[in-house]
């Protein structure tokens, strides 16, 4: 059997869902890093009408068939490479499981992606280029490419409008529901590990890196369920590059109490950021319109994708204006979004 080709951004939780499935079924596979800003080797063979969004698999054992969309990939792999010990969509539950997975893809998957990027952009935005290109480079070129990709990510996923889109509240409500779904159960459906368990754990993984949710006592049952599924059914999983870099960043010594004190009493800096945040919000208040790149009606076969249309600047002046706009959001709006989470943590502990 020839290895299946997985086109990926390794930090993607949707990719993790497919990677887990391939390993759970003990299928050989190779990976190709997806080029966000250019051509990806191998994808020139893919059908022209296929969405070029990761994850994508190419199966050389079936006339180099290409499949995109994580749930559709799981269905394909289960139909072509299953036995009694690793079936993820049992016949009696198949449509129910498909509907459940697509629902999670269209809600939890999108919320967690936006919140995960928000946390990353707040902690260390310059590592984004390393994560996407999946290679380490500490030079200035990597720094500026990382900042440029931050601007594109903010625009495409509306990271600067998480509070306004009520993503915190939607995620809280969904996690509360999912916590009740897993309470007192070994598995979500029947008495076996299915695509529903795998999908839920793969998608909730990004929220492990968001302290507001991961440390919230309300959701501990859900995260304990995630840890149990990983230990039992994904024991060989290694931390992604994004997880390793964030862990390394968090191991750095925190600022001294004296330095923190100086930061708090730095009135000039406080006033500057306060007014700049107000100015940025006022100048760019008109970009609240959502312009989805893909159809927003979920079907029985595909999940919703919330990526926005980003108008590609056609002139040098237009490109400068685009990056100034979203760099301002990175400097002033993103910290404001994080402060909203910090305020929720503070109110929770009072």
Task: Give a structural overview.
The protein is mainly alpha-helical. It has a domain at 4-90: Glutaredoxin (3-Layer(aba) Sandwich). It contains 14 helices and four strands. The protein has helices at residues 13-24, 70-80, 94-106, 108-123, 128-133, 140-157, 167-182, 195-204, 211-214, 220-233, 241-250, 257-264, 267-283, 316-349; strands spanning 4-8, 29-33, 56-59, 65-68. The chain has a four-stranded mixed beta sheet, covered by helices on one side. Helix 4 packs across helix 14 (316-349) and helix 8 packs across helix 10 (220-233). The protein is globular and about 65 Å long. The N and C termini lie far apart (58 Å). The model has no long low-confidence stretch (mean pLDDT 86).
Strands of the widest sheet, in order across it, are 2-1-3-4
- In CATH, the homologous superfamily of the domain at 4-90 goes by the name Glutaredoxin
* Uncertain spans: none
CATH topology of the domain at 4-90: Glutaredoxin
- The number of helices is 14
Mean pLDDT: 86
Q: Quick one: overall form?
A: globular
Largest sheet: 4 strands, mixed
SS elements, strand count: 4
Helix content: 40-55%
Give the H and E element order: EHEEEHHHHHHHHHHHHH
Q: Kindly provide the name of the CATH class of the domain at 4-90.
A: Alpha Beta
Architecture (CATH level 2) name of the domain at 4-90:
3-Layer(aba) Sandwich
Which band does the percent of strand residues land in? 5-15%
């Amino acid at each position: 059997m020839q290895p299946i080709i997985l086109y990926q951004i390794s930090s993607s939780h949707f990719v993790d869902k497919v990677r887990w499935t391939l390993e759970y079924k003990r299928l050989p596979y190779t990976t190709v890093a997806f080029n966000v800003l250019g051509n990806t080797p191998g994808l020139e063979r893919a059908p022209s009408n296929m969405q070029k969004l990761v994850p994508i698999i190419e199966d050389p054992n079936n006339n180099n068939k290409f499949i995109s969309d994580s749930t559709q990939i799981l269905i394909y792999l289960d139909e072509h490479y299953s036995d009694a010990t690793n079936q993820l969509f049992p016949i009696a539950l198949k449509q129910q499981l498909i509907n459940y997975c697509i629902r999670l893809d269209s809600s939890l998957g999108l919320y967690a992606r936006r919140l995960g990027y928000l946390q990353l952009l707040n902690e260390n935005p310059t590592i984004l280029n390393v994560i996407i290109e999946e290679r380490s480079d500490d030079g200035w070129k990597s720094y500026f490419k990382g900042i440029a990709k931050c601007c594109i990510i903010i625009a495409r996923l509306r990271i600067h409008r998480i509070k306004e889109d009520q993503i915190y509240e939607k995620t809280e409500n969904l996690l509360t529901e999912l916590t009740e779904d897993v309470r007192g159960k070994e598995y979500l459906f029947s008495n076996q590990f299915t695509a529903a368990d795998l999908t839920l754990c793969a998608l909730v993984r990004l929220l492990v890196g968001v302290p507001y949710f991961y440390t919230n006592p309300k959701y501990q049952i859900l995260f304990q369920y995630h840890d149990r599924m990983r230990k039992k059914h994904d024991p060989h999983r290694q931390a992604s590059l994004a997880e390793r870099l964030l862990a390394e960043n968090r191991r750095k010594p925190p600022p001294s109490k004296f330095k923190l004190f100086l930061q708090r009493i730095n009135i000039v800096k406080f006033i500057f950021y306060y007014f700049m945040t107000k100015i940025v919000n006022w100048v760019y208040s008109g970009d609240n319109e959502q312009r989805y790149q893909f159809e927003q009606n979920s079907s029985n076969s595909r999940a919703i994708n919330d990526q926005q249309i980003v108008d590609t600047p056609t002139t040098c002046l237009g490109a400068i204006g685009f990056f100034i706009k979203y760099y301002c959001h990175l400097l002033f709006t993103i910290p404001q979004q994080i402060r909203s989470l910090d305020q929720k943590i503070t109110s929770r502990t009072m």
